[in-house]
Amino acid sequence: MDVHNPDQYMASLRQIIAQGRKRIGFIVGAGAPVGIRKPGTSDPIIPAVEGLTRLVLENLHERYNGVFEGITSELENPNIETILSKVRSLSGVIGDAKVHGLDGNGFRDLGDAICKQIGSIVNQDLPDETTPYSHIVAWLSGTDRQHPVEIFTTNYDLFFEQALERAKVPYFDGFSGASEPFFDPASVSNNDLPSSWVRLWKVHGSLGWSTNSKGEVIRAGQRQATHLVFPEHLKYDQTQKAPYSALFDRLRLFLLTPDTLLIASGFSFADAHISARIDECLAANPTASLFAFQYKQLDEETHAVEIAKRRSNMSVYASDKALINGIAAPWLPGRPPTRDWHSIRDTYWSGGADGEPGKFELGSYDRLARFFASSGSSQFTAQPDLNGQTPEAQPE
After folding, report:
1. Is 200 helix (H, G, I), strand (E, B) or coil?
2. Dihedral angle sign, alpha carbons of residues 14, 18, 20, 26
3. Distance, CA of 327 to CA of 208 (rounded, Å)
4. Nearest residue to 160 via CA among 52, 29, 57
5. Bridge-partner residues for 171, per DSSP?
6. Structural domain spans, the chain
7. How far apart are alpha carbons 109 and 345 in whole angstroms?
8. What rounded mean pLDDT belongs to the chain?
9. pLDDT, tens digit, for every residue of 193-202?
10. Sequential DSSP letters for 212-273
11. DSSP β-bridge partners for residue 25
C-alpha cells in the first residue's frame, strides 16, 4: 500500500524556507483568520465564508429575506460571494423588470447593502498579541532573501497590512501616492523594488479601496467597503481594468517564473478564476510547484484534488492523506530524520498514540505560520526535491 511520510516532506520544506534562496509566494484565503478568536470567546474574529454568509443574511433578513430565498434556491453553492455575484448580474440586466420582487435598481441597492455588511464584519483590528500573521512576518523579516516574497490574498481585511507595519517590514500593494494613492500596473508587473519589500496583492479588493470622480480605483485611507470584488461580479470589460487584471497577471507571472514555490493556506480552490489561472500556469511551467495545505480530509478537498490529479507539480497536504505526484495515500511517519526530530514533528503532526490515527496539522493557517516562524531552528541538512523525492535528512 502506498503511504506518504510527512517527515520527509516537512524536512524538505523547512530546508527550503530557512535558506532564503527560493522564490516563494503565498495564496491565502478566507480560512486564514478563522484561527484568531474574539477576546474571551471561541468565536473567530472574522468568520470563514460559511459564517460570513450566515451573518450577512441574518443582518439583511428583515428587508430582503424573500429575495435571498429566491436567489439561493437557484444557486448550486449559495454563499455570500455567489449570492453577490447573482445580485450584481441581475442589477445589470433586468432594468425595470422585476425578479424576486426587485428591479435592477433594487438589486443594485442590495449589492451595496451586502458589501456594507461584509465590510462591517471584516473591519477588525489584528490583536496586539502574537498571531499567525505576526508569525509569518517574523519569518519574512528573519532571512536575507534573493527574491521578494509575494502574498496573494482573496481576503478583504487588513491583517497582513497591520502585521507588516507593526514589524516595520516594508511592503508594496500596487498603490502609490499620499493624497489619493493610485494603482500603478507598471510597478506591479516588474520587480524594481528591493527583495526585502514584501509584495501584497489583494486580488478581490480590500477595505479602504474606493473610486474617485474619474471611476479609478484608489486607496482611500478609510475602511470603506464600497469596492469589494469577487471577479464573477464584474462584466468581462470591467475585469480587464486595473487593478484586477494587473493582479491576476501578477499571479500568472509569478507561476510562470522558473523554480517558484506557491504555498496555499486557508484557500479552498473553489474560486474558478484563480484555480483556472493556477491550473494553466502549472501546466505551462513544470518547474513551478504548489503546496496546498488543506484543513479538511483529502476526500473533502475536491477542488484542490481536481487540479493536483492533473498537475504533478501540485501537492495537496490534507489532514488524513496527501496527494503527491498524482498519488493519493495516507500519511505514515517514518524514522525520525534526526535525533531531536520529535519536537519538530510536533509542529506539524499530532496524535497517533493508543492505536488512534495521527493527523497532519498544517492545514490550519495558525499551525502553518508557526511552522514557518520556527524554520530558522533547523538542525539538519537535506537536499530538497520539490517533486517529492526527498531523501532523509541527516544530523549535522
Report:
1. strand
2. positive
3. 43
4. 29
5. 198
6. 6-40+125-379, 49-122
7. 52
8. 87
9. 999 999 999 9
10. -TTS-EEE-SS---TT---GGGS-HHHHTSTTHHHHHHHHHHHHHSSSEEEEEES--S--HH
11. 150, 262
